[in-house]
Amino acid sequence: RRRRFQVPLTMGDTKEIETLVHHQHESTASQLSNLSPEELYIRQERQQLVRQAIAQLPLHFRTVVIMREINELSFEEIAETLNQPVGTVKSNMFRAKKRLREIVGNLMGR
């Protein structure tokens, strides 16, 4: 099992959600202390945006995103926990990421 982490906070173009959920968030005090106040503010704003986007997902998508990207469970572990085929879990993850991109775009006014 991979190490647990907080939701990473990188945003850019329409791929922000993929990078968001695949890069570990720097959470140690020493790493955060290297950031300027402006960078810290931007990071906090991005965190809030991501939380809002995830909260807007339908429950079955939100569950898979949280289990996979925040709790870092494998697709097999998620499938077993939810009593679903692995293919269904992967499809839901794909659709959830697509929906997250749309939601983030709307929240950012794109």
Q: Secondary structure elements and their pairing?
A:
Blueprint: H1 16-22, H2 29-33, H3 37-55, H4 59-70, H5 75-82, H6 86-107
Helix pairs in contact: 3-6, 4-6, 5-6
The top level CATH class name: Mainly Alpha
Give the number of domains.
1
The CATH topology corresponds to: Arc Repressor Mutant, subunit A
Spell out the helices and strands N to C.
HHHHHH
Question: Biggest β-sheet, characterized?
Answer: none
The shape is flat
CATH-level-4 superfamily name: Winged helix-like DNA-binding domain superfamily/Winged helix DNA-binding domain
Summed up, the helix count is 6
Any guess at the CATH architecture?
Orthogonal Bundle
Low-confidence stretches: 1-15, 22-26
N-to-C CA distance: 37 Å
**Assembly form of the protein:** single chain
Mean pLDDT: 79
Helix content: 55-70%
Structural class: mainly alpha
Task: Give the DSSP E fraction (strand runs of 2 or more residues).
Answer: under 5%
The radius of gyration is 15 Å
Tally the beta strands. 0
Describe the structure.
The structure is a single chain. This protein has 110 residues and is an all-alpha fold. The chain has one domain (16-107): Winged helix-like DNA-binding domain superfamily/Winged helix DNA-binding domain (Arc Repressor Mutant, subunit A, Orthogonal Bundle). It is built from six helices and no strands. The protein has helices at residues 16-22, 29-33, 37-55, 59-70, 75-82, 86-107. Helix 3 (37-55) crosses helix 6 (86-107). It starts with 15 loop residues before the first helix and ends with a helix.
